[in-house]
Each structure stands twice: as structure tokens, then as C-alpha cells.
Write a structure and sequence with these properties.
alpha/beta, Rossmann fold, about 20% strand, ATP binding
């Protein structure tokens, strides 16, 4: 354990009694911070033998009397300034003109007291020194003495006792500053003390108050910081500990103030090697707690470095990180599905689900293969939710959705200033955001060779380097990848890295297409109808058509079809209400067996006869522009499917290929804009004008 106070100060005065008296005064004020050792002038050696941090001498005279040989050159020496108490000063401050003897235990002390009284402002009196072996007693009827009544000549009847001289404020401030003890608490003590003494240096006191205020403000601010902060000076002496640092080290600042930082840490069995360099976030152990430590040197005075150490409790950082990750999960990085969401009636699929359930708690990578829309993502979500990482983020990335450079910065993040326009402070990548969770790399077969190489590093070494950075960041992420492409063929064609393939496919799941598990179709239809809550079941002919269809878009296509039928439903669903592709394929199947059958010729729900449009008679250009406008007004997507549906409502049958061709022509004429993706086509200003003109002509 540390002693109550580690700072030792020797007090040397002409007489032991005087040094004891000064010692008592100072101990009463600062005993909690400093140990004072009283010494008589004749016993310097003894005091020097003690390893003290400072020697306080009662006057210049005592200092010059001591033999230089006995003054330890390394120990600092400070002269004690003394003054009068307010009560003592009150007794003399209005004395009338005249002679007064000033009595003390020795000549030097008497002279000192005289100069003090003059300095404090009593100038109208004539003060004469008087001490035990004075050659000639001064001619005065009144004696003034600072607590040394016993030396007053016996014939003097009128004695003014000023009381013991007291240590001046400036001496206290100098001593406290030397030991970095000037803080809020010590300032309060100083202020109280100042009320009862006459200060010899009023100006200095005011300046000091200002400095103390600034310092207190600074320290209060550091006490509000949530990290532990320790500062030390160029000699390695501790100059400040904020409250958090006191808690982490379980040490009050007063016990370590001005002590060597290395010694203090070593006494606590803390590895001090971090003090030799500037470092960030090194993990050390303090009192069985994992602490992240930062050490920074500050060149504030010439070339000598002072230092600042900050401590963070690693658990708190982890908790914060966890909070951030929980937040991330609520911000979208979360797995929505569980194995129980996989609807199936196929023995093949049931076996697959049970295999996947066994893979889930294992931390190995999983490669999911299968055509588009077969449910690969559903499996990835379910694997994560059934794993030990379920409480951490699930980050899904579609590798084919972004251009290479963007995908790279999304995945790995970038450092501050990595490229023009890079966000200040850099950006964390998705791998970082998935830390302790799972990253799902969908369409992995679409990534470039360069990214394949970068990915290999993460999968192999579990570490990333940000774009434009050099720092290696460890990440703890499980990788689940999926693709509809044939990676084995791609490897043979040198389009996919073999080492990456084998790393990814430690565990493999192959989701069969819907046409290979037809028994799932009615089951899934029922499931999606229930979800839509519009229809209880589908009419038999539609159900038959759906079961017959090959479903190239698999479950996604089936789900969309059910959604489409729910919208189309007006109580009497017909086969022609099926999306064109399905109806088309059924008809194609029919036409191969019955070559004479018309493309589509039936009644729709309104009893209107639908026939393929006679395009020669139709202003297809105008029709399409109107349909696009109508879709826009109805808030529908302007894709081909909706345009076909709207045309049907007008009793006109359009084919997808006709629409595609026609839209191309309209675009060339500047009447429509075609946007890539799901945005579909939009009328241009010219397109609107065209319709308007046509209407006017009509
Ligand atoms: N067995 C199933 N039970 C219920 N819904 C399913 C099932 N399989 C797939 N789905 C649904 O079908 C849609 C497509 O599934 P998912 O996105 O998982 O397929 P995918 O194979 O990842 O597709 P892609 O390769 O195009 O990314 C989703 O809405 C999903 O919820």
C-alpha cells in the first residue's frame, strides 16, 4: 500500500521550536498531501540524510548559514515567506509615531520582523531590534514581539504580542504548484486560510486566484471525461489524475502526486513499456481489468516531452460496441428469417433444412448454390439466426448490385482522405459492421478477380485493411456466400479463384429449383394466398396451369404471381388473368400439341373478347404513350407486365416483344425515357405534348 502521503518536505529554522511551529502550521493545512519534517539549523545533516522532495528554510539568513556541502544539490530549496495574522496586525496598524522595540529570539529574526511590519505598511513608527544578547537595549517603552514574550526585557510594561508569524500565501502556492497539488480542494483551503492572514503580496494573490480558476476549470473538464486521464511532466512526475483514473488505479491523486509514473505503475505490477512510445489502444491489465491504454507525448516546453495517458475499460468499450451493433441490427443489419419460415412439403427440401440446421451452430463458412429465387437468402438468414452469432449483426450484401470500386469501399471501408470526396474520418466497411456476426455475400460469382483476392484475405486471416489504409484490423465474421452461377466451371475458365472457392464451400447447401420439387407448389401457393389474405384458394384451371409451369424464377416468381392474381382478382379469376409469361408458356405447350389453336382467344372476366391486336389498324405508338401515362396516374410501375394488363383492360392484347420494340422506337423519338432496373419508362415533355396534341386533334 502507498503511505498516506508520499511527498516529504524538510523544514529548517534557526531553532527547533521555530521549525516545529512552522511544521505544525503547515501540517494542519496540508498534512493530507505532504509529510513535513521539522529540523533545527544545527542538524542539517540529519535532515539531508532523509530523502526529501523539498527543503523549506525559514529565512535567507538560515539558508546562507548552512554549509553548501550539506545541501543535497538535487533537492530543491525554498525560502519560507512569513507574515502576520490579521488579529496581530490589527493590534499595531494604528500605532502612534514613536520608538518601539521589536523583540525576537535572535537578531536576524528581530530584523526580519521589523522589515515585515514596514512592508505591511506601518511606516510612521521607529522600530528597533531587541534580542537576548543585544549590545545595548533600545530606548523604547513599548515592546512588539511575534510570540516571543519571554525575551522581552523585564522593565518593559507594555508588550504587544502579535502572535506567531504565519506562512505567507505565496509560499504555500509556490510549494503546492511545485507538487502539482493546486486543485479545487487545496484552493478552498487556501482561500479560507487567506481570510485570517495579512498577505504580503496582494497583487500576486489576485493573479494566482485567476490561474487557479483556469486550472480548476481545466481539471473539472477532465473530470467530466469518461476515460481515465493521467498527466506527467518532463521528469515523469505525475501532475494530474482525473476521477476516472483514480477509480481505475484505485488511488487518490494526493497519494501519487509528484511521484514517478513508472515507479507508481510498477508498484501496481503494471507493465510500463507503453510509456516509452506514443501508442494507441494497447491492451494492458490493471487490477484484473482489461484496459485500453493510450500514451501521448506533448512537447510543450522546448524539447522535453510531458505526457498524457488515457485509460479506457475494455469491457465498457465492448459494451458500447455491442450497443452500436444492436443499433446497427435495428438499422437493418438483421436476419429476418428462421428455418421455420421455410415452407416446404418436399422430402428433399426437408432433408436439406435439417442438414442446414446442423451446420448452423458450427462457425464454418457456408456456400449456398441454387437458381434465382430458390430461397438461398432465406437459408442464409436462418443459418445466422440459429447460430451462436444470432445476437450480432447479419449483414447482407448483393455483390452484383454495385460496381467494383464501390463494392470494395462498401465491404472494406476507407480511411480518411483515401480518395477525392471520401468522407472525413473515413468510413467503416460492412465487414467491420458485421463484426462478431455474419456477412452474407450474395451473387459471389459476380465479383471481380481483384475483390476475390481481397476476400480471400478476410476469409483466411480474419482481418481487413481499409481502402487507402495500412492498418490491419482483426474482424470476427462468419462468411455465408451464395450464387446461382456454376463456380466449378468458372474456376476452370480462370474466372473464379480456386483457393477462395474451397475456403467458401467448407459447408455447402444446394437448393433445388421449384420444378424439381413440384410437390411444394400447392403448399407454397396456399402459404402466399394466406399471406395476401385476398383469396382462400385458386380456381382449379389456374392451379393446374401453375403446377404445370416450369417456374424459371422459382419461388420468387411464384410469390409475385400470387400477388399479381390477388390484385387481378375480382371474384372470378380466369386463366388469362395469369401473367403473360405463364399464360404464354401454357399456350405454347398447348400449341405444340394442337398446332391450330389461336394464341389467346377467350373471354375475360368482363365478358369482353380478347384477340391479338390487329397492329396494322392500331396507333400502337399513341396507345403505349397513353398506357404509360395511365400507369403513372394509377401509381403503377410502368413495366411491360403492367402495360399488358392495362391494354387488356381496353380489350387489346399486346405482347412483351411488341412493347419492347415499340418502347425502343419511342425512346429514339425522344418521347420516353427508359430507366434501368425497376423504374421502368417515363414520358418525356415531348411525350406529354404528343398525347395532348393528339387529344386536341380528336
Ligand atoms: N421455402 C420457402 N418458403 C417460403 N418462402 C420462400 C421459400 N423459398 C423462397 N421463399 C421466398 O421467395 C423469395 C425469394 O427467395 P430468396 O431471396 O431467398 O431467393 P434467392 O435464391 O436468394 O434469390 P436470388 O438468387 O435471386 O437472390 C423471398 O421472398 C423468399 O421469402
Amino acid at each position: 500500500m502507498f503511505p498516506i502521503s508520499n511527498i516529504k518536505v524538510a523544514i529548517i529554522a534557526g531553532y527547533e521550536a521555530t521549525s516545529q511551529q512552522i511544521c505544525d502550521q503547515l501540517t494542519a493545512l496540508w498534512g493530507a498531501y505532504i509529510t513535513f519534517i521539522p529540523m533545527a539549523a544545527g542538524r542539517y545533516e540529519e535532515s539531508m540524510a532523509q530523502d526529501v522532495d523539498l527543503i523549506l528554510v525559514s529565512s535567507h539568513i538560515i539558508f546562507t548559514r548552512s554549509s553548501p556541502a550539506v545541501i543535497n544539490k538535487r533537492t530543491e530549496v525554498q525560502i519560507i515567506g512569513r507574515t502576520l495574522s490579521k488579529a496581530g496586525w490589527e493590534k499595531i496598524k494604528n500605532l502612534p509615531d514613536g520608538n518601539y522595540m521589536v523583540v525576537n529570539d535572535e537578531r536576524d529574526s528581530a530584523v526580519e520582523t521589523i522589515s515585515l511590519i514596514y512592508e505591511l505598511g506601518l511606516r510612521n513608527v521607529n522600530l528597533l531590534p531587541c534580542y537576548p544578547d543585544v549590545p545595548e537595549l533600545p530606548k523604547a517603552a513599548i515592546a512588539i514581539t511575534p510570540g516571543e514574550r519571554s525575551y522581552v526585557p523585564s522593565h518593559i510594561e507594555h508588550v504587544i504580542d502579535l502572535g506567531e508569524r504565519v506562512v505567507d500565501i505565496s509560499t504555500m502556492v509556490e510549494m503546492l504548484t511545485r507538487f502539482h497539488l493546486l486543485n479545487h480542494e487545496t484552493t478552498l483551503i487556501l482561500n479560507e486560510y487567506a481570510k485570517n492572514i495579512v498577505s504580503r503580496s496582494q497583487g500576486l494573490q489576485a493573479t494566482m486566484q485567476g490561474l487557479i480558476h483556469t486550472k480548476n476549470l481545466f481539471e473539472e473538464t477532465l473530470n467530466m471525461v469518461q476515460d481515465g486521464v493521467v498527466t506527467y511532466d518532463e521528469r515523469g512526475k505525475i501532475t494530474f489524475l482525473n476521477k476516472v483514473a483514480e477509480e481505475i488505479l484505485a488511488l487518490p491523486f494526493s497519494r501519487v502526486a509528484n511521484r514517478d509514473i513508472r515507479l507508481v505503475l510498477r508498484e501496481m505490477r503494471i507493465d510500463t513499456s507503453f510509456l516509452d512510445k506514443d501508442l494507441q489502444n494497447q491492451l494492458i491489465t490493471i487490477r484484473s481489468q482489461n484496459i485500453l491504454v493510450n500514451n501521448m507525448k506533448i512537447l510543450s516546453r522546448g524539447n522535453v516531452a510531458e505526457g498524457v495517458i488515457t485509460f479506457k475499460i475494455a469491457k465498457e468499450v465492448e459494451e458500447l460496441e455491442l450497443k452500436l451493433r444492436t443499433q446497427l441490427r435495428t438499422n437493418g443489419h438483421t436476419a429476418r428469417f428462421h428455418f421455420s419460415d421455410i415452407v416446404t412439403n418436399s422430402p428433399l427440401m426437408k432433408r436439406l433444412v435439417s442438414r442446414a440446421q446442423r451446420m448452423a451452430p458450427n462457425d464454418l463458412g457456408v456456400l449456398i448454390l441454387g437458381e434465382n429465387g430458390t430461397g438461398k437468402e432465406l437459408f442464409a438468414h436462418s443459418l445466422h439466426n440459429a447460430s451462436l452469432r444470432a445476437n450480432f449483426p447479419f449483414v447482407a450484401v448483393n455483390c452484383s448490385a454495385l460496381p467494383e470500386s464501390l463494392l470494395e469501399t462498401e465491404l472494406f471501408g476507407y480511411e480518411d482522405g483515401a480518395f477525392t470526396g471520401a468522407k472525413k474520418g473515413g468510413k467503416p466497411g460492412l465487414f467491420e459492421q458485421a463484426h462478431r456476426g455474419t456477412i452474407f455475400l450474395d451473387e459471389i460469382g459476380d465479383i471481380s478477380p481483384h475483390l476475390q483476392t481481397r476476400l480471400l484475405r478476410v476469409v483466411q486471416q480474419k482481418e481487413i485493411i481499409k481502402v487507402g489504409g495500412t492498418k490491419v484490423l482483426p474482424v470476427d465474421v462468419r462468411v455465408i456466400a451464395a450464387t446461382n452461377r456454376n463456380l466449378v466451371t468458372m474456376m476452370k475458365e480462370d474466372k473464379f479463384r480456386e483457393d477462395l472457392y474451397y475456403r467458401l464451400k467448407v459447408l455447402q447447401i444446394e437448393v433445388p429449383p421449384l420444378r424439381e420439387r413440384k410437390e411444394d407448389i400447392p403448399y407454397l401457393v396456399q402459404h402466399f394466398l394466406k399471406k395476401k389474405k385476398v383469396l382462400a384458394e385458386l380456381p382449379e384451371p389456374i392451379m393446374a396451369a401453375i403446377t404445370q409451369y416450369q417456374w424459371p424464377g422459382n419461388i420468387r416468381e411464384l410469390e409475385n404471381t400470387i400477388e399479381y392474381l390477388s390484385i387481378m382478382n375480382e371474384g372470378d379469376l380466369q386463366i388469362e388473368d395469369l401473367p403473360f409469361s405463364i399464360g404464354d408458356s401454357i399456350n405454347q405447350a398447348a400449341s405444340t400439341s394442337e398446332k391450330t389453336a389461336p394464341l389467346i382467344e377467350t373471354n375475360d372476366s368482363s365478358g369482353q373478347k380478347l384477340v391479338p391486336a390487329d397492329y396494322a389498324e392500331l396507333d400502337v405508338e399513341r396507345l403505349l404513350l397513353e398506357l404509360i401515362l395511365e400507369a403513372k396516374i394509377k401509381g403503377l410501375h410502368t413495366g411491360r407486365k403492367n402495360l399488358i394488363k392495362l391494354a387488356r383492360e381496353r380489350g387489346i392484347l399486346l405482347t412483351e416483344s411488341l412493347i419492347r420494340k415499340q418502347v425502343d422506337l419511342l425512346r429514339e423519338k425522344g418521347l420516353v425515357n427508359v430507366q434501368i432496373g425497376r423504374a421502368g419508362c417515363q414520358l418525356t415533355t415531348r411525350g406529354y405534348a404528343y398525347i395532348k396534341n393528339q387529344e386536341q386533334e380528336d
